[in-house]
Amino acid sequence: MKLAKYFILVLIALVSLKAYSQRDKKKNGRYVISISPGIAYGEASNAYTSASFYGPNLSFCIRKRIIKLSKNYNFSFDFHLGSQYAFFENDKKLYGSQYGQLVFNFNALAGSYPPNKKNPVSFPIGFFIGPGLYIVNGGYGTQDIGPLLNLGIRIKLSKTYFFDTRFFAAFTVFGETAIGGASLQFPIMLRKTSGGK
């Protein structure tokens, strides 16, 4: 039942992102909406014990360009909303939690600028890196918050499309939980006016 609740929350997030993008069309907003499946590993602790955990996660991301430096470089604000599923050592149950990640990213080279068929970036590789905040609700550490570092490589597949390989590491302050993960990030709404990753 708990897993069904988390799945429903992810679906609500996807519908909300779609509604947001439709509402923002008239404003000519510069954003990219992505879906990101991946895996994570961590060490969780509380007042009584500690344990290792691992498992899949799924998140949705809205990235909005906020500072344009040049055609191939910019800063963006990224908001990730997702669910983390985890198996704890010596425990066959699957646990779930919701998390949010707020990230301030520096984007460079391929994929950092809106898609342009006439003048595409010829170099097929880009990268991004940035600090952020990790917020988790539920799971082993209940509600918690802490710093996060996110980085990755952007690979251009065509003149207008790309995908990301993303890595993150975070540490929560109260539960003292360390977590790291890797994911593939695929744009599902890549507007020509967006400051794409």
Describe this structure in words.
- The protein is mainly beta and 197 residues long.
- Helix content is 12%, strand content 59%.
- The chain has one helix at residues 2-24; strands at 31-45, 50-70, 73-88, 94-109, 125-137, 144-156, 162-171, 178-190.
- A hairpin with a 5-residue loop joins β6 and β7.
- The radius of gyration is 17 Å and the shape is elongated.
Describe, in short, the structure shown.
This protein is 12% helix and 59% strand. The chain is mainly beta and 197 residues long.
Write the layout of secondary structure elements.
Layout (H helix, E strand, L loop, with lengths): L1 H23 L6 E15 L4 E21 L2 E16 L5 E16 L15 E13 L6 E13 L5 E10 L6 E13 L7
Antiparallel strand pairs: 1-2, 1-8, 2-3, 3-4, 4-5, 5-6, 6-7, 7-8
Low-confidence stretches: 17-28, 193-197
Radius of gyration from the alpha-carbon trace, in angstroms: 17 Å
Strands ordered across the widest β-sheet: 1-2-3-4-5-6-7-8
Number of alpha- plus pi-helical segments: 1
Query: How many strands, which pairing sense, and closed or not: the largest β-sheet?
Result: 8 strands, antiparallel, barrel
What's the rounded overall pLDDT mean?
A: 76
Helices and strands, in order, run as: HEEEEEEEE
Helix content: 10-25%
Outline type:
elongated
Number of strands: 8
Distance between the termini: 36 Å
Beta-strand fraction estimate: over 45%
Structure classification:
mainly beta
